[in-house]
Amino acid sequence: MLTKDSLPLMIGEIDYANAWPLFVGLDQRLDASELGLCSRIPAELNRKLREGELQASAVSSFAYGLNSKEYLLLPELCVGSEGRVNSVMLFLKQPIERVRPQRIAVTTASATSVNLLKILMKLYYDLDAEYIPAEPVLDQMLEDADGALIIGDPAIHASWRSEELHIIDLGELWHRWTGLGMTFAVVAVHKEAAAAFPREIHDLHQAMLATKRHNLADLTTLMDKACDELGGERAYWLDYFTCLQYDFGQKLREGLALYFRYATQLGLLDHEVQLAFYEDNSAE
């Protein structure tokens, strides 16, 4: 049970460039005595939030679906796209129209993209493949598989050196099929934390909104950080951050709801999922 002795609340930060607009500079807007940051890959954050090590976190959308009865979504915050996402990619040895992959190595870093791949393979391509969990090292993944799904910064680096491979951007394919956006990550808060610490969760939400607005108003800082830490050209990173969406708008919410329906249809989830949003009651 959360009490005042639980402070500071711990908040999970996705350790990929695609989440930087939500987090770069966030620490400067938080009271460290109330809210602390923990930076990890999505799979680690999913586990930590589920097990109560974090009280709020950016997590894989699928992780929200698994635990939707315990979580609330912070409005206007997500990582998604309406089209190319540029960091959720299926690398294939042969074009899928020519050779239907039988074995696909899949990242262990996030559940959303793996299950999106399963949905697209089954319902769009009518293809049943074997999915093999693997660390995100492209050459090793392809040693014994026809394709490899990689996400985040490793996917970006792999795309820069994969001229001989055929790449399917899952965000682009989802949009072409459904006409909707795809939400890859959300920001979720434990219902218990929202009830026990309304002011602190209010402060977190407002700080994340302000951080997002600041970073997206001028992408210079993010582009410079990306070039310094990950390589590549400024033009690439300008396109990258511009393609992504962070506001959790209507098409992204509708796309996520459809994703959950398909996941339930295919037995990837054992229950229906409703999107439940945090409501700010701090004034009360």
Automatic annotation (TrEMBL):
EC category name: lyase
Keyword entries, A-Z: Lyase, Menaquinone biosynthesis
Reaction it catalyzes: chorismate = 3-[(1-carboxyvinyl)-oxy]benzoate + H2O
One GO term of the biological process aspect: menaquinone biosynthetic process
InterPro entries cross-referenced by the UniProt entry: Menaquinone_biosynth, MqnA
EC number(s) per entry: 4.2.1.151
The protein's role, per its UniProt record: Catalyzes the dehydration of chorismate into 3-[(1-carboxyvinyl)oxy]benzoate, a step in the biosynthesis of menaquinone (MK, vitamin K2).
Family according to the record: Belongs to the MqnA/MqnD family. MqnA subfamily.
Name the UniProt record assigns to this protein: Chorismate dehydratase
Encoding gene (name): mqnA
